[in-house]
Amino acid sequence: MNAGPPPVPVRRRRRVPPPLVRLAGWLAAGALLTVLTSTAEGTPTDHLLVLREAFGSTALLWWLAAAGVLWAVLEVWRARDAGPALARQTAGVRAGWQRIAERPLNRRLFLLAAAVAAIVLPRFAGEFYQRVLVDQVAVFVLLAVGLNVVVGWAGLLDLGYVAFFAIGAYTCAFFTRALPVKPPFALNPFVILPIAVAVCLVAGLLLGAPTLRLRGDYLAIVTLGFHEIVQLFLVNKDTWTGGNQGAGGIPHFSIHLDGVHYAWGLDSLPYWYLFIGMLAVVLFLFSRLEHSKVGRAWTAVREDEVAAAATGVPTVRYKLMAFAIGASVSGLSGVLYASRIGYINPASFPVVLSISVLSYVIFGGMGSLIGVVVGAALLTFLPAVFQEQELVRQEDIPIWIGGILVVMMIFRSQGLIPSRRRRRELGLAAQGIADADAMSESPEGRT
Amino acid sequence: MATAADAPHRGEPPAGPLLAVRGVTLRFGGLTSLNRVDLTADRGEILAVIGPNGAGKTSLFNCLTGVYTPQEGTIAFAPPTAERPVHLVGGPARRRRGRKPHVVNRAGIARTFQNIRLFAALSAYENVKVAAETRQRTGPVGAMLRLPHARANERSSDAATSALLDFTGLLAVADETASSLPYGVQRRLEIARALATEPALLLLDEPAAGTNPTEKRELEQLIRRINGDLGVTVLLIEHDMRLVMSVADRVTVLNFGRVIAEGRPAEVQRDPAVVEAYLGTPGPDEGPEEEP
Predict the structure, then answer these.
(1) CB contact A325 to B (< 8 Å)
(2) Is residue B236 a contact partner of residue B245, using CB atoms and an 8 Å limit?
(3) Rounded to whole angstroms, how far apart are CA atoms B40 and B252?
């Protein structure tokens, strides 16, 4: 017999195979979604009750089944290494599509088709969808296009963007004598449009001038504070703004020229055409701006502020310009919105709205006009569709949008339809060459 | 000290030096980065600033370009277009606030960076064009409406950009993304971008760092052509002694923030203070090139 000590048994911790870990993750996500999206006896805030009710419900089974199926598909996908294979197989098709999309004539045709669709299709939509198109899609697309200038082109994080929207709306209310403090005359909303644009331009300059020397996170905090200030002013200065009651009876748009009389009313379709008309003008001007001296200077500032200043770009002035131009589009949208709805109060402009608009911009593709338009349109229209079809409850919509954004940032961080410049930037960052984060502090000190 | 007669290039009227740095002192808290530095760049010359690591060369550049404002001293710049010298720092009015970098650039000083700082997402062409456009007056309204003057400006900056890319031999890569270019090409692109702002004085911060021998030779020729063909005065920070000795008209040596020697390359090379700064004194202290 061997006299030595008995060999110590090697205790090896049995590792759970990764696929099972992933399955657990998917099932947990399914269960979580069940709880989050279900109400028990109308009290969605009582989580324990919801939890008890949710277990044993058929909804849970459905969610778990869906999670399981998704897991199985992904495991097969992974095992077969299908991702790269698919990428290889579709490379030719994608390159071909790229060629088609890049050709100027095709671009024009595409724009024409989009314009025709935007003009014709809403005629055949139901009343509900027409209302969604105007009150949600059009308003937010316009807002997103404006915010894109600030965030996408100049690389400034603006979390108080909706404050300018509110300023535009209240400007409209003021000049139509809907506020407690009244001007001696009432103006047609059409006349107010340029006034509101100017007011927001000035407001943007006033906010920007002292703060745009800040960078990244600091600027975001300041803009957040600016939004709070505007909202508190609207609530507290009730002798001017009507306080929480807000302002009602804002008249609709109307034209009274020689022989031409037309008034926009409660009908959605005329407002839709008004909105997309404005949007078309803004898009036309902005697409020129993007590929002009100004657009290039913004990109330079976003890419490297120190280098931009050393190349003679007055960085603060260009940042201010982006801020003011973005704000003015927001004001434009505010006038349209106020006149369309006819009633505004401070609660119409919560901070969350700024975050939503920002998420539409990010979803669509920062810096890409088409991407931002499509992104904002999808994220405002689809929830309404799902809601109408009673697939999703209204309270759950932010969860879904949040979920979509998370998935989007993991798998396609450049957004739905990224701009060419942004695509380059992120492509380089992925290779570790450059820095994709436009907000990061530059190492060379102040500019 | 060398005089303007050493500068072989232009026959410009002797209206004083192009750049006069007098007694510039820059401190970061207790650390004195530049200590009463005097530096003179005459019109049309190539002046090299050399010195061990941490000697204050890049700090000097940052003072010249308005990134840092020195606590003491004056910097006067007299471009051919200006009637009187522009006081970048100090001057008669004792303005302690230095000029902003973009103002310095408009006055006629352009620079490159030690660690290349191109606009990564823009193409090589756009990188140069941004610089070529900065003096134009096109505003957002002009750009949006494509007013006549905006279009004329666009054409002139396009022409200037193409000419400069041709001058620096970068026309072939004009449409490439800046950061996808090889290192040496990026260095040249940075020089092209700096030249696009039509400077009277070009500051090159270690342009040969990280380039291969072929690229170094090309760079040497490029610097000579910038100086000779374009008539731009060049101020060069460089570690590569062979390049400095062959290309520079004069050399200023910095060590621990002080000017320790100045003169023609061959003289400076023999200067005992310079030899000591670079090789160290044989003694207990063996790490002479470190920042204190």
Answers:
(1) yes
(2) no
(3) 9
